[in-house]
């Protein structure tokens, strides 16, 4: 499953945020693995379309799609040299698909800052440097091996050597691997290295409650925004502490609390949505009398692979799919009406599923 890892220096609010995530969490019965691994939290992806579909179809149950967060605590200065629990944590980051970097943007004299003062630019640099150094080591090790293969005239090795050299240069200057422009073929060649700084990053600027209505007024948030803009990354201002409080509320109470804070949605919802975008994920739906359900796929996924998210048999035996766009179904008012109007399309193996598609799969068992 796709997952995003939460990183940041100690005492910036990672655990608080992670606890809010697990509190707000998806129905844990569906996700047995998260009770096994305390560092994995699963959240429902909020999606208004699901409720609207349910109104049309009237199913017995409604199942949102979900999303994994992994708490990667313990990244400290020196981690790339194995300090703290360094290497173990770096290997956890290797396994996630994208990174949420929590940055402390709140002042609180009762909460120690590891570097002595709140300083987002220096915090970000500290974390990024550890990741860069870990990648530099990975790249140099690989370079050694490829250099030997290159001598024997191996074409793939020659190509890889070129890419690795470019990566090495950037990393040695302290720049993340994602600043090196690589075409899709080049990316493929180095994919197995699983470079940490090649992963997309989203900055979560952790602010105090008072800043939530207007986070831009917080100068620390401005600093994070400037750095993120240079990297082409997104920033989501959030208050981990407030999220922890929101996570304990439900329905009406929750809406009232958000209104008091001057917010239309919780920061967590915005963070989930941003992480979803960051991973290039989209949602399709299945809609039957039993259940209306949302499913997550990567952008560009074709119909059989999309079916495979439900069950591998669906992919293996895929024949075709009956498809209607979300807006079309809403306009038609019901699946039956949509069918009468000829709005349901039959699509084959090459169909690229779009965000919001409602799909019915036909398959051989
Ligand atoms: P971690 O080490 O990054 O996991 O940080 P924690 O989540 O344990 O948070 C460190 C301390 O900061 C805890 O005492 C939190 O209650 C506190 N904290 C977290 N978020 C906020 C915030 O937005 N404002 C304030 N004032 N304190 C916070």
UniProtKB/TrEMBL annotation:
InterPro entries: ATPase_YchF/OLA1 (IPR004396), Beta-grasp_dom_sf (IPR012675), G_OBG (IPR031167), GTP-bd (IPR006073), P-loop_NTPase (IPR027417), TGS (IPR004095), TGS-like (IPR012676), TGS-like_dom_sf (IPR023192). GO terms for cellular component: cytoplasm. GO terms for molecular function: ATP binding; ATP hydrolysis activity; GTP binding; metal ion binding; ribosomal large subunit binding. Its cofactor is Mg(2+). SUPFAM superfamilies: P-loop containing nucleoside triphosphate hydrolases (SSF52540), TGS-like (SSF81271). Keywords: ATP-binding, Magnesium, Metal-binding, Nucleotide-binding. Residues 2-258 form the OBG-type G domain. It comes from the Bacteria. ATP binds at residues 11-16. CDD domains: TGS_YchF_OLA1, YchF. Residues 280-363 form the TGS domain. It holds the Pfam family YchF-GTPase_C. ATPase that binds to both the 70S ribosome and the 50S ribosomal subunit in a nucleotide-independent manner. Belongs to the TRAFAC class OBG-HflX-like GTPase superfamily. OBG GTPase family. YchF/OLA1 subfamily. This is Ribosome-binding ATPase YchF. It comes from Thermoactinomyces daqus. The gene is ychF.
């Amino acid at each position: 499953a796709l997952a995003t890892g939460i990183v940041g220096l100690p005492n910036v609010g990672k655990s608080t945020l992670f606890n809010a995530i697990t509190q707000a969490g998806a129905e844990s019965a569906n996700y047995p693995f998260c009770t096994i691994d305390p560092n994995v939290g699963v959240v429902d992806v909020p999606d208004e379309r699901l409720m609207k579909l349910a109104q049309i179809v009237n199913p017995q149950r409604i199942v949102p799609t979900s999303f994994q967060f992994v708490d990667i605590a313990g990244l400290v200065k020196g981690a790339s040299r194995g300090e703290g629990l360094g290497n173990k944590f770096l290997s956890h980051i290797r396994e996630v698909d994208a990174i949420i970097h929590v940055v402390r943007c709140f002042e609180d004299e009762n909460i120690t800052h590891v570097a002595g003062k709140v300083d987002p630019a220096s915090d970000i640099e500290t974390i990024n440097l550890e990741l860069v150094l870990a990648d530099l080591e990975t790249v140099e090790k690989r370079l050694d091996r490829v250099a030997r293969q290159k001598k024997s005239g191996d074409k793939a090795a020659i190509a890889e050597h070129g890419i690795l050299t470019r990566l090495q240069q950037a990393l040695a200057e302290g720049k993340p691997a994602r600043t090196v422009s690589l075409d899709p073929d080049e990316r493929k060649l180095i994919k197995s290295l699983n470079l940490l700084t090649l992963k997309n990053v989203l900055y979560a600027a952790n602010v105090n409650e008072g800043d939530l209505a207007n986070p831009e007024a917080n100068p620390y948030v401005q600093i994070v925004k400037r750095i993120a803009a240079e990297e082409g990354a997104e920033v989501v201002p959030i208050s981990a502490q407030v999220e922890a409080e929101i996570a304990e509320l439900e329905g009406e109470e929750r809406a009232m609390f958000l209104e008091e804070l001057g917010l239309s949605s919780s920061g967590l919802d915005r963070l989930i949505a941003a992480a979803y975008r960051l991973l290039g994920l989209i949602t399709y739906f299945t809609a039957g009398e039993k259940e209306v359900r949302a499913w997550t796929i990567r952008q560009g996924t074709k119909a059989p692979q999309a079916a495979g998210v439900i069950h591998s048999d669906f992919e293996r035996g895929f024949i075709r799919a009956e498809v209607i766009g979300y807006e079309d179904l809403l306009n038609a008012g019901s699946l039956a009406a949509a069918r009468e109007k000829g709005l349901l399309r039959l699509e084959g193996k090459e169909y690229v599923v779009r965000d919001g598609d409602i799909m019915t799969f036909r398959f051989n068992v």
